[in-house]
Every structure is written in C-alpha cells, then in structure tokens.
C-alpha cells in the first residue's frame, strides 16, 4: 500500500468563509460530519494517488530526418506545483500517430525535477506529423489524457512538399453543455456549445434554436475556436433543436439535451466582479424538501472554500473571495440535500502566480558571427527577483518555421491544460496579456472542456484500488518467474549481473514473492547495458521461465489522432531545408569524430593466443565448465569441489571455507585470493556469480601464485566468465532458468554544438546558417534572479527568436519571448 506524505495541507487550514445571499455562513468543521468526511477522504485520496505533471520544451517544432531534437523535461508535484523530486525517470516517446506506432523512446534522468536530453531522429524517419509524449512511471496509473503531448513535424529533405489532406466528416460534431451539468424545467440556464471538425479542431459557426412550436428561442454564434454560449429557460412539454452552419453551408440540425423536471442549476459569474467569484444556485424542488445544499471549491485536490444554504431558498448567491485561490483551475461542486454531487463548474483564477522572464541583449543588434551576450532576469508578481531553473532556445525566425505565439507554454500547460482532458487549441492565447478578451474566452473554454483528474463519487466511495505502477526514483527492472507450465513456482532466488559497454559489471541478488513477481528499483546506468538474470527455486530447481517487463514495448493508444498539415506556405521553407541540411552534415561529422578510426596495418607473425585477463602463463589446475557440470552446482565454488587436488572446500554452502594445500598461519586458515576475470574480488562476489556465466576456473598453488605477491599466500582462484570476452554475444547464451537481455539505460546527455568564433579553427570556413543557434537546458538564476548567457551569431542577417521557460522550486512558472536583430 503506497501512501505519500509530502506537500498535503492540514485539514484545518483548507476551509475559508463564504457568503450566501450576503450572510456569513462560516461553520465549525468538527460539528459538520459531511464536510469533515469529505475533507478526510479527499486527503486520503491525495496521499494515496498523488499527481505528477510533466512539461517538455523543445528547441523547435520542425525538423529534417537525422536532426537532433533538443529538449528539457520539467517534473512538478500535481497538487502544489512544487518541483517534483520523487520520480527520477522521465520517459519521452516519439509516436507515429497515424500508424499508432512507437518510433523511438528516451529515458531521461531527472534530478530535482529537471531532465535535459535529446532525441536524434533516424535518417530513415518518414516525413510527417509525429507526437512527442512524456510521462513518468507513476503517471501510468492514471489516464493517458494527462501525459504531456506535443506535435513535431518532420519535413522531407528535398523535393516537393505534398499537401496532407485533412480528414473529412459528413458534418461537424457539435456538443451542447448546460452550465453546471443539466437543464431543469422552468429555471434559467446558460448553455455552452462547441463545434469541431473530424480532427477535433474548433470551427466557427452560427445558427439559432427552435422549440417544438418552431419559435426562435435564441440566436447562436461561436465566439472563439468554435465555442459559444446562449441562454435558455426550458418549458414543460417542449423540446429544443439547434440549427448550425459554417459560412454559406446549409444548416445542420442538432437536438439539445432534454431538461429534468426537478433539480438544481449552478450559474457562475467569473468575469464582472474583480473581488469575488459569484455562484448563483437555483432549484425547483418541492416546498417540502428539507436540508441544505453545499458548495465546495477546490483547486488541485485542496479544498479552498465551502458554503452552505437551505434548500427552501430557491435562489442563493455565493461570493467566493478571489484572493483565497491560487492560480489555476478551481472546481466548484454543488452537493444536494442528500450530499450527492449534482452540479459542477470549472473556473480559472489569477493571483499573480507567474514569473516574468526577461532576456535583454547587452547590444541591441549584432553582426554575423559576432558574440551575443544576454542578461536574463526573473521576477515574481511583486517584481521581486527570484531564483529559478530555466531552459532557452534561440532560433532563426526565417528558418525555425515556428507557429504563432498562441501555442502552448510552460505556464499554459502547468496552470491550464495539464488539468484538462482533450486537446486545447491555442492555449497560449489565454495567457497573453495583450488579448483583452482572453479571460472571457478562457471562461467559455472551461464551460466546454471537461475536468477529470478525479470525480467526487470516486473519492467518496473510499474503496481505492492498489496502484499498479510504483514511483520510480531510478530505472526499474521488473518481471515474473513461472514454471514451464505457467504455474507459480513460489519464492525464487534471483541473481542479476549487469555488464556495461565499458566492461564494468555489478551483481545484485533478489527474491520473488509467492506469485513469482520481482523488481529492482532505483537503478542508475547509462546507455545500453547487458543483464543476465539467473533463477533457482528454494529446492535448487532451475527449470523456470523468466519474463522481463522492460522487453515489452507499451501499446500506443490514442483517443484522437492529431492533425498537423505538412503544407508550410512560407518562402523560408526552401532556405530552411538547405541550411538545416548543411548543419546536419556538421552534426554527422561530430558523431563520426567520436569514433576512433585506425588505418589498416598488416602484420606477418606467428599468432599467439593471449588473454588480457591473465598475468600468468599457465595455471596449476583448470576446470572447464560445461552445461552438465553447471547444472548440478549451487555456486561457483561447487564447481571446484573434488575436482582440484589439494583444494579443500568445507563449511556452509552460503559461506564456505576455502583452503589450498593446507595454507594457514597463527590466525587460522589462509584463504586464496579470489579473482573474476583477473580482477580481485571478495568471496561473496564469486558466490553470487551465476554458474552458467562461468567459462572456466584457474587455480594457482604455491609458486605459481607468487606473481600476485603476499596477498596470494593462500593461492589464487581466478574465475573466467564467458562475458569477460569482448567478442562474446550474451544473447546466444540460453540455459534453464536464465534470461539474457540488452536494456536501455538513461539517455546520455549530449552537449549542444555551437561554433566559437573567438577561436580560429579550420571548420569555421564552412558557411553557418543554423536554424537553432543556441540551446541551453540548465540555466540557474541566483537569488538576485539574474544569469548571463552568451553564444555566437551565424552568417545569417536575420531576426533571432529567444524563448525562455522555467520555474522556481516552489512551482511558479514563467515563459518569455524576445526578438533580436542580426544585421
């Protein structure tokens, strides 16, 4: 059972006073059992299922095959938005959404909520629109709708850019959403609507609503990205139909939801009053209905305010002071007289919970190849400097082919889209202070977009299932051991051996549970690593089958395939492809230079077989390990029992005493020096080595061991493994109870290459027209909120776009965009 104790507010601090119809209705928490139970169960839910949020900044959106996508992941606690220091692994997938196929995956190491890295696109990747998806292992316990996603486009390196046809549908999809949840007979309501095409993108539309008598009840006109709203008061014995069209197209007919005969309506005014959010509650319950309704306002799982009022009052006004709310989405839920949730409304509140990130070049403009130095400044809403961790991408506006400023940012993702299902178009629009109507349109968005981080019935039920996936502070290794007939084998002892590319090796032991499941957590290795897992039952049976979860590629499930047309109607496209191709060749050369190339040398001489793992010429005794010999051995030392003259092995199998030719001194038995592939180890390392991994064992006695000096006074036992040979292919080693696999570790973080023109180098003779001039994933401002960044301009006389994003340790996000001339 997993419970978390970090960053959960005390219950007594969660409730503020609210006003109903102008009368204070503060209550004593200890005397209200429903509110007390509500808060306790929400607190339990938050501890059991803490949420995480992920955001990824990339240097660009458009790439050519073979280019590098430079990126940085940010991890946040889902409740407090503080930097997440629990999860240590960020998974980044590149998905072909049309084929629903995983193209490539990176595992980025996250330290203090920061996960820099890169994806190098294959040279063979097909042009098209791709989905970049990022998440932690813990986030797999919840809906994939809350993974971070971003569209990337791979352009063809040459030739014509063919248009991508948009999916077509017989008619647009239209949804009608009564505010609060449902229409109720005789009660004034506000109905929001959203018109979308086959890809889920908003479409502007207009029309009208008719009742059963064909009377016009309301006119319809979308206000923003296909969204709009109108007022409606349902009448008995009437049904309502909307007629909508796009432009001059014919009208299409859509039925409105039916009205309930009795119930509640929740209408919220989040625009007109700067001091308060006003909630209007109306009902048409019979006069005999007794009890109270409860309005609960919560933000990210923390109850902010609660208000109560009598059902007998058919109209109630609740005023919720804005200054009690943090920045973000607030969920207002109305519980009826039976404490059942009946209405829900989302609102957005702003209270200065964002950073201002300013980047000021020390010179207003520079010349080609001149050094650019910029001062970075970060302040909070009170204009006070703050320390923050940032990432910066500097791109050539003429080549980057970036979309407009309405695209998603760290601010819009953390405070808005990370708490909503579905694709939010132009989420940056709602945070652009130059858009005067942004808050009205944001309020309309929240009337049409569903919140489903949790539902109150789920919380109140109390029967919470066990999380399937644990929190991952590091890489994980999980799987199951079963008998060949797939039946459980009970508890099984496991030995793990890891061998990295540099031949470094490590050993671990573990035991499965009764069902055969095992897991190693918190592992830390980079790049591809070979792992060998050996299983043996308590009775010494090795006839077992092993599975490894990390070898199974996750299924790609997408609720909707995003549509990104490849038609980029800009004059800069040809130049981008040409210049990006030039820089790509430089990148390829850099990768080639990492390899050591030697000229072929022919040597004519007699071949002498040597083994670098041995500093001696020959051993006094050698035991060659065969599969039959290994099958009856519990440990490596068992392979030597009775097979080497003068070697005595006695005592416990788990901690035997080893003695060669009676070697002893005043302190007792002098055991031999133990080696694995020529490297000194302790006896326990030899005992933990899988017997099937041993090729042969050399035993040196007396004078033969003198080459190792005084530490070999008791002789030498050198265990030579199959994997000690660099030409050995572990995937070919198949034996009972053994699984061998290649596992990806953390993606090695490469340094962004950028030329320094203050140094004279031969490669500077090349033309330089980079699309991305600078990528800086880890910028840390000091307590004064300042940092300095420098790089060199390219050959292009252009405008540079500087996008800087980041957050404080407390979770205040910021995004900044600046432009700079290269003349």
TrEMBL record:
SUPFAM superfamilies: Porins. It is a multi-pass membrane protein. Residues 53-137 form the Macroglobulin domain. It is found in: Cell outer membrane. Keywords: Cell outer membrane, Membrane, Signal, Transmembrane, Transmembrane beta strand, Transport. Residues 630-716 form the TonB-dependent receptor plug domain. InterPro entries: MG2 (IPR002890), Plug_dom (IPR012910), Plug_dom_sf (IPR037066), TonB-dep_rcpt-like (IPR039426). PANTHER family: HEMOGLOBIN AND HEMOGLOBIN-HAPTOGLOBIN-BINDING PROTEIN 1-RELATED (PTHR30069:SF29), TONB-DEPENDENT OUTER MEMBRANE RECEPTOR (PTHR30069). Belongs to the TonB-dependent receptor family. This is Plug domain-containing protein. It comes from Nibrella saemangeumensis.
